[in-house]
Amino acid sequence: MAGFPPARWVEAGAMPAVFVAVSRLVFTGRFPYGYIGMLPMLWAALRFEIFGMALTMVMLTVVAVPYTAAGLGLFSNPAFAPDEWQWQVQMFLVIVALSALEVAVLTRQYRKALLRLERPYGELESRVIERTAARENEERLRVFIDYAPVAAPMLDRHMRYLAVSRRWLDDYRLEDVVLGRSHYLVFPEIPEQWKEVLCCALAGEVVTADEDRFVRADVP
Asked: Which pLDDT tens digit goes with each residue over 169-196?
């Protein structure tokens, strides 16, 4: 109960007062329907589970037994022997307690099931948000590269094209169908030595060769 919001504390404070008031009406004979006292108890079991059920059960017992012994309430009939009204009060308390206990247990199981569902849902929602953000960033990067004023490609670690600038397509006389294709298939004239250098660069090695020139096989 320590984590309850203020509204739940107000509800917890009002619940015993309502329950005692209804119980007194029932066991002073002012209200003829005894099981109406179950409604506040079910309310307590539904809202506060086992703790609420146990607290209201104690209060019901404290109210029911003294009033019945004093000749008041539903079970105070002069024709009943003491053991008869005691048996009736006990049966009443047992029926009420079992009903409230069932509601309290079902309420707890329901809340636990909700918690089990909320955790994977929260994780799934986080993953969806992360993937959506990643796709948006990737799309912005592609648009940026597409309209870059320089010849710039973006490739993955397998040397497949993810995005290229229009300048890249124009400079190397390529068609706009290179995305997803291998760099080595687009440029089959790349020598094996350069492929080895590119592998080293992908592994993190810094390699430069300013004197090397790349000439397209189909371009004069």
From this structure: 888 888 777 888 898 888 888 888 888 8
205 within 8 A of 190, measured Cβ to Cβ: no
8: left (phi over 0), alpha (psi -120 to 50) or beta: alpha
Q: Count how many Cα atoms sit within 13 Å of the Cα of residue 175 in the half-sphere of its side chain.
A: 3
28 and 115 part of one domain: yes
Using alpha carbons only, give the angle 178, 210, 167 rounded to the nearest 5 degrees: 30
pLDDT tens digits for 61-80? Answer: 777 777 777 776 666 666 66
Residues 59, 16, single domain; the answer is: yes
Give the DSSP H/E element, type plus range, for residue 153: strand 153-155
Task: Enumerate residues 6+ apart whose C-beta is below 8 A from 131.
Answer: none
Rounded to the nearest 5 degrees, what angle is found at the Cα of 15, between the Cα atoms of 13 and 17?
Answer: 80
- Rounded CA-CA distance 10/154 in Å is 61
Q: Which domain holds residue 47?
A: 6-129
The CA-based diameter of the chain, rounded to the nearest angstrom, is: 121
pTM passes above 0.85: no
